[in-house]
Design a protein that fits this description.
By secondary structure, this protein is of the alpha+beta class. The chain contains 14 helices and 31 strands. The strands form 6 sheets. The chain has an 8-stranded antiparallel beta sheet with strand order 11-10-16-7-8-15-12-13. Strand 24 and strand 25 form a beta hairpin.
Length: 604
Amino acid sequence: MKTKYIRNFAIIAHIDHGKSTLADRIMELTQTVSQRESSDQLLDNMEVEQAHGVTVKSRTVRNFYQGDDGQEYEYNFIDTPGHVDFSYEVSKSLAASDGAILLVDATQGVQAQTVANLRLALKNHLTIIPVINKIDNAAANVQATEEQIRQLRPEFAQMPILKISAKTGQNVHQVLEAIYQRIPAPVTTAASPLKALVFDSQYDSYKGVIAYIRIFDGQLQDSQKLQLMQQKVNFKAQEIGIFTPNMKKTAALNAGEVGYVITGIKDVGSVQVGDTLTSADQPTSQALASFQPARSMVYAGFYPKDGTSYAALKEAISKLALNDSSFQYLAEESEALGPGFRCGFLGIFHLQIIRERLLKEYQVEVLTTAPNATYHVYLKKPLVNQEYLTITNPVKFPDFSEIDYVTESYVKATITTPNNYLGDIMKLATQHDGEMIELSNQQELVVITYKMPVSEIAYDFFNALKAITHGYATLDTEFLDFELVDVVKIQIQINYAPVDALDIIVPRPKAAQTAKQLVQKMKYTVPRRLYPMPVQAIVENKSIARIDVPPLRKNAAVNGEKRSISKKQQLLRRQNINKRKAAQSDIKLPQSVFDAILNLNNSD
């Protein structure tokens, strides 16, 4: 199809504003899927997406639409998530699009994530089509919602705003007409060498890496020799095609189109999202400007659990990392838990989704350690050719006697919220060491910008924010820099044996309270034995909190027989020493022990 009849677009919206439902209606009206194949939230086909009711992974589908002008158009729709933890998925989709439908729920109005995703679309210079959804709902306030949208941007003031019901299909035809009327056709040069953006990928055990691509210049043909410019990897296209939404083989992909290429590459690290795909025989002279790679906000350890082998976990994580480019990992070793991986995530919900995907898609169950932030540790005696140590794992935090000072990663946290929650949010941010940078009004919403340490938002900040605002606030974070902090490492000993996987780094003023809460949690989560086990929190070689895990029953040495006190004490001492020696190499902890760290703020 000629480039002037191609439209590449995405739908951006707040969670539960009807984005997936509108996608279903578009596919139905363009007859992309038959009535037999049709189902609710067709593109949200992952178990975790259906379980949580959110879009996690971007999907792509090609539709053909017969316009009222008599011309057939090619609509390449690239799906986007709505949750703040998956804003990186949104940015990838928008990089391959030329326009976006801004969908707003008439019963809820403009919400925080609506504004956040609009910012992303405007950064990519996309044409925006504002649409009001759920007009058939009895609680809909269409006029108020329209006023809110018009106040978002000056260009929205006179722009026609479409009013639809994605559920019933009412006026969705108007959206299909607006797509070719308002969104521009791709700007391409067909005669130029092949230049395509790899905006997503997935892994297949038999086919290898499958790259999702948007072609900007030239033409891609089946069996063509190709090159990934950033990774300098050459390969032959095993198959190329489009999404309908399932993969469908084609002979060629032309300039402006969106599709896939089966690379046959089995090394998952060889294909990077954001790379430029070109011809190996006649490469383009200049690569596309790649978007910024995802920056992990929190880190946690993944270790094999129960019958899961390390090899199975390694294979599952490597494939999942290819399917989710914002997920990062590095092999590590724990004395208590054995070999595992230090993994980076965009947020706590992202961590939860990855853990669930490992279980449901790869049948791999993992033991997850407490999340932590990134620190730069400057030593009193600096290492050769190394100014500081980058610490993402508390186990590798140096001894306090070697440290000169420590800096922690800070972010600019932009919170968009209805103004009636402003007081509660400011109190919450202050409790998490937030420093206000800016406060501005945007219609009935307030945008507050804070400078915050990552460690303070790594645990429960976003969950607490959702709780106090009933889900109507959003959090958008952007890395700022590293700043000086006074932190210490809390080491946990169970039965006098250190458990490195439980180590955490906390601000010094909070160390005593955190340690006390932590050992109290351990009392009820560490599995009991036939004898009491002490749990201690060690800070700078000093025990600052201790509690005993009670035994399953009384000690067998105290049996009521008439013996001298000294003999009883000797027997108890010998028994405890022997049992503790045996226990030091046999400490197996359930996930509930590590989850206790996440729930410290809920302690009484």
